[in-house]
Amino acid sequence: MKKTTLAALAVLFGASGALAQDVVRMGSEGAYPPYNFISDATGELDGFERELGDELCLRAGLTCEWVINDWDTIIPNLVAGNFDTIMAGMSITEARMEVITFSDNYLLPEPSAFVALPETDVSVLESGVLAAQSNTIQASHIADGSADLLEFSTPNEGISAVRNGEVDALLADKAFLAPFVADSGGALVFLGEDVLIGGGIGIGLRQSDTDLRDTFNAAIAEMKDDGSLNEMIARWFGEDHPQF
Amino acid sequence: MFSFCTDPSILPDWQWFACLFTNATHLQFYRAFGVVLVLLAITAPVALGMGLMGALALRSRIWPVSWLGRGYVNIVRGVPDIVFFLFVPIALGQGIEWVMHQIQCPDWDQPIRQGNDFIVCREARIPPPNSPVWMRDAYAFAMAVVAYALVFGAFAANTLHGAMQAVPKAQIETAEAYGMTRAQAFRRIILPQMWVYALPGLSNIWQILIKATPLLFLLGIQDIVYWANFLGGEKTSLFTFPHPDWRMWYFLGLLVFYLLLTWVSERAFARLGDRLSRGQATAAGERIRKGAAP
Q1: pLDDT < 50 regions, chain A
Q2: CB-based contact B90 A180, cutoff 8 Å
Q3: What is the distance between the alpha carbons of residues A113 and B32, in angstroms, rounded to a whole number?
């Protein structure tokens, strides 16, 4: 009886040692269009990273499922083993490399931009109040400068803060900001020069998961070689976006 | 949901809204209301159970037990809830995995802590690898119930302990005069009568529990406040239903929901109070005895 129960449990959990491949759980934020967002038509994760991640899993022969996690706790949850990868527009930085590891980049270093209300003076970039999402390269970029930093847990809240005058400008990835500026009909504009920060975007992994990193690196290299990655970047971010 | 929803961008307003409010993300939003209510329905009795055990520990004559009770109540009441909600799921989860690891893989030769990573053998993973999504959701939900029960159990323990002390001493002396043991007197005299004294405190804790449910998002469960914030946020033309920042309206909806919940529980507690006061040696019990309106 006990044996049958155990066998039943093994089947239920799929925990028999014979099964070769575990499901790879892919963590993402779901609040950073067009990188990753929750589609309001299907209710599922959508975006560039969803499509790329699914394609990489297909090429590497992995079974993958997606997990939505808050940005601020996404690295602790990866390290704790609640999921196995992060694909959430996360730039490869030295500070993050101390805690986790990254695959090769699947997006080149790309411009970040300031967005503000029309007729905002450029001097606010030195002396004003600037917003950024907490724990991002943009937040540390502002913190290193002379302006005051106001952090928000989602980039959408930063946009609202710009609109209602709570902050002078918001710094975020230009690809994220572009649709907001385009849709606003002149109510939001880019301010000043673009800034190039970060070392490109890669898949975040636990430092001990070297095999999984190698698997993803091979798939990313394959997609860089056959041009399918460039094609995907152009489709989601436009032809002007930096390509491999 | 509706047949006309295939291309919302060309629809007149009322149909556009009908499609928006029945789209996939809104259905998840509505489901989150159920999750919150189920969490409340499960957590409240579990926390009350924790509280009862804590209160018993507090009044225990065996000093290690009473110290344990005092330690639990004071530590949990003194530490911010948010710390517990961040600590419990990770610490408890890793604790369970560590124990499972010792049982399942005694021959494991690699360290469990490798730098920042916590690595146990495959058999010890909770929930097991390849578990279906519903099982992971259930696990996260159970963790949430444990975290809430731990925190609110400590408050309930103190309230119940106070209520036990409030039962008139003369009644316990009478019980002892009838030859009841301490345990019998507790079961027959204190336990049935203490609730009327505990009720105001318990109703406070219940209200605070309702207000604490948005912390669910810290535990990886997308609750109604998360969804309201997400759905209300500005949506660009990348989405099927683009709209400006509507968070105020979504939060207004939540306000109504929470007030409704408060109003319903207020009434329920009032009725419970009348019921428990019947035959009690309290002012409310006296009023009922004299036949005045309760």
Answers
A1: 1, 6-19
A2: no
A3: 36
